[in-house]
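Q: Hi! First time doing this. I have a protein sequence and I read that you can turn it into a structure. Is that right? Here it is:
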Amino acid sequence: MIHSNTIPKDKLYDKSILEDQSKWTTNNVHDPALVKDGDWYYVFSTDASYGIKPKAGVQIRKSKDLINWQWVGYAFSDGVPEEAEKWTGALGLWAPEVTKYGDTYYMYYSASTFGSTQSFIGLATSKHIEGPYEDQGLVYKSLEGEEDEPNAIDANITFDKNGEPWMVFGSFFGGIHVTKIDPNTGKPYQYGKGRLIAKRHVSVERAIEGPYIVYNPDLDYYYLFVSYDSLFSNYNIRVARSKNIEGPYLDFEGNDMTNIELPPNDVGLKLLGGYKFQDGDGWVAPGHNSVLKDGDDYYVCHHIRAEKDKHWHYLHIRKVVWSEDGWPLISPERYAGEKEIPVNLKELTGEWEYFLVDKENNNQDSSICITITDSPQASIYLLQLSENRYMLNVNGTEITGKVLPSWDWELWKETFVFMGKDSKGQVYLAKKMND
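A: Yes, that's right. Below is the predicted 3D structure, encoded as structure tokens:
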């Protein structure tokens, strides 16, 4: 059961929050890194805001339930560390990442300016997750004009199946790289760019960035999440997987993420882009995600922009489920406390909205209304495969996935959602409309 009195109402375009950072809950979040420490969940994010000049120092928020967020403050009290500022001219810090080795918290930060590859990944440490953090200097830096080299931003620390830390990083022209980290220093064993694991023929409108790797021990795969395309319009989340943390990372069709011969939208399984249900304006440009494994549950954390005014950017947390053949699927609604539980087929018949997560669509995916029955003789029906695993047949297209109880953020009521993909690897998302 989801209780609406525990879920905060959206306050989109609320200018009253701009001057009061204590009201920055899910507002002004960009490039969020989600971590858990004890009973608290923390989000560290880029120095970005709308309507007010952003302060430098890495924004911190926390929550007990992944739903209600409160402002904490900044990781740095003195803004951009001196070495990073001298190399890049950065006015703020981007794309933080926080992990823990032993009893010390390590925060990786990026310094750069928009459109430049003169960039710097640095490291800071603290004995407390909320800081303050003390700068430990350079991890990796890149020089403007060296476009075959990785751009030194967007660091993520992931742990392999043996518990050893690795850093995946990079953006735009030089692609995405991974290198092994010494847990005693928090820095690479050997300074350098590591191994290339993903790349695109890119422009500002055809980016690849925001890498994040998570290992699923049940499936014995490493999953590489990346963000494609323009930060302000058609940003979208894609994924590939590998048996080896250093790759190769292959998508659903078996395409290597370093393949630059294929059309730019043909590589990477597209999980989420801009979308719109019938009620509400919808959202655009979801991306730069992190993934949290919390016990047996997985959550994706990303920023997203409001459709009417794309200057406003927000924090979204969504439940991740896994397909029968071992691919992640993202809920079409934000997390509201739902769990994976058996769902009775009879509860699911009726009016639904669904849409294809179209890999070629640079605009919002718009939902279509359908009536779902439980009769295989109908043109649209659901077939229960096991507990919450279902097959949705829409005019002969078979889409296998999972059903979850959820919260309808557009209509403000409990509902069910469906996440699935067809035999071609195309993802479909849906929610039930009627009671």
